[in-house]
Structure formats: structure tokens, C-alpha cells
Amino acid sequence: MNREISSVLQGYSADFKIVIELLIRRFCPIQIHCFAEYTTSYTIRTCFGETVDNCKQDYFLLIVTEESVRIEHEIQDFINAHFKQGVITVLAHGRKAVLDALEAGSRFFTNIYQRGTLLYSSDVIMATDGSILDRDSFLIDASHLDRRLLLIEGFLSGARECLRNLQYNACLFMLHQVVEQCCLALIRTHLDYRSGSHNLQRLLQLCCCFSTEPIKVFLAGTKEDERLFNILARSYSETRYSDGFLANKDDVHLLYHRIELFSALTKNMCNGR
Q: Which residues pair with 94 in a beta bridge?
């Protein structure tokens, strides 16, 4: 089948189209689907009488590759380097994995193939019967959610104990685990997708395709938010492998209280499903 960029792509911004074309040339995917997008509009006013209306565009893409080797991180880094007008969040899977998921009746992949926007295709991959998308009959895997919630509570209890014992590096590592497990629970519950990522930024960004509330707990737009989140994100590796890393007491306390709120939000959002 001839490689074809969908005519639907013409309705997107020039910057987005350029990135898609670069992506196709660099990674030669089989298909590119957009499964969610949103635009945030804002106005800048100054005391000099100038008013500027602007917007930020975020997109969520499923990229299907020929090979089974996952290259999601490489694709994400490539896109981050070439798209600055918003955020593009990427999930990448090989053809066989996608076909197997469709055959197994995956709600996530079937939704994308039946209701998402196909931006590019060099081959045909068919979705299964749409009857599995009957939302009234869809049930969340309660046992999976229970396991995640137990892990969340366990890591949070461990962080609390480390905090009492002034073990700030260990506490920070436990807090990272709490946020990771919260994100995995949210994504599985709302999308029926099993993410294997440990990258908190990408997990929280993926949550944005169904709610911006999770990411706002950590990144509400201030420099202090960015500083604290960077400490948390680094803790996954630095608390284990960097001999010179020493968590700051005040920072750990601030993160602990913020992550307590995030844990409560996660439980509310999951139980509400």
C-alpha cells in the first residue's frame, strides 16, 4: 500500500504537520493515530496597553511500528526537540502487539481504531467488532485497581515512616513510587491501557488526555512547582545511584504533603469510575 498522509492532517497547524512529516521520515512508522487533543487559550495583558491572545495545543499520538522493539522514548525525545508550540505525548507499539491487543478486545486500542483520527498510514490494520465499546457494559478490573491502591498505600506508609526517622532520601524514593503507582492506576482505570513507563512527566502528561487535575497537583505553572517536581523526578535514579545526592528536609516535607493530596485525588478519580 502506498504511504499516505491523511487529508485530515490539513486541518492541523503548520508546526504540527511539520513534526509529523519529520517523524515519518525519521522513524518510518506504519501508522500514526491521534487519540486525543486539547487547546488551552490564554490572554496576556500588560500595563503598556498591549493584549495578546494565544493558545497552547496538546496532542496524544499512538504510533505503530513494524518492529516489536519499543522505541517510544526515542520518538518522544525526538518530538520534544522539534515541537515547542505545546506538548505531544507519544505511545509507540509494534504491529504485532497492536494486532494482538485488538484481537483480545482491548478497549484502549479498539477505541483508537474506531474513533481516533488516522493521520498517516502505510498499511491497513483493522479494528474488531465495535460491540466491545458498549460503555454501559464496561467494567473496570476491580482486582487490578485494588492491587494498585494497596501499593499506593504501602509506599505512602513507607514514606511516612522514613520521614519520621529522618531518612529523607529513602522517603523521596518512596514518594516517587506513590506517584508512579497513582498514575498507572489512573491510566488503567480511565483508558484501559497498561503503561510500563517510570517517567513521571510522561505519565502525568498521558493522564491529561482524560483530566488535567493530576498534573496540576505538581505543575500548576510556578517556578517552585517545577523545582520540586524536578527533585521528585530525579529521585528514582539519584537516591539509588548517586552517592552525592542528599534530599533536603524541607523539600521532602513539601513533596510529602503534596503527594498525600495526589493519592486522595487518585482514589476519588478511580472509585468514581
A: 65
